[in-house]
Amino acid sequence: MAPGKENYYPLSLFMATVWIWIYSFVIVWFTFKITMAFKLRFSVIPLVLYPWGIALRDKKKFEDMLTMVKVFKEKMPQQRISLAETFSGPIFQITGLMGTVWLIYMLSKGKDISFINEGIQY
What percent of the chain is modeled with pLDDT above 90? Predict the structure, then answer.
């Protein structure tokens, strides 16, 4: 937003993508290590722990959104508010980058990944 820095958006987009790759890798690594250390089923952490964290994050987002709507009504009553961008980040992370992290891992190690999931019936 600083004058003269308008053309840095490709760098910002690239760095955001790298950050999400790293963050996704840490989440997968953490889930695997904790599950193996405590001998849990592989569905426990993603179905129990992560939803609580997401609920806390979304509660904060909702409170921030209510504050933003109040400020917009006071300062810019003619401005229209679009909430489409609010949840596009998590959707992009889940659908796109998690798979990309696994693909990079498979290409770098040169071997396939076997997912252990007790809930899948063969």
Answer: 7
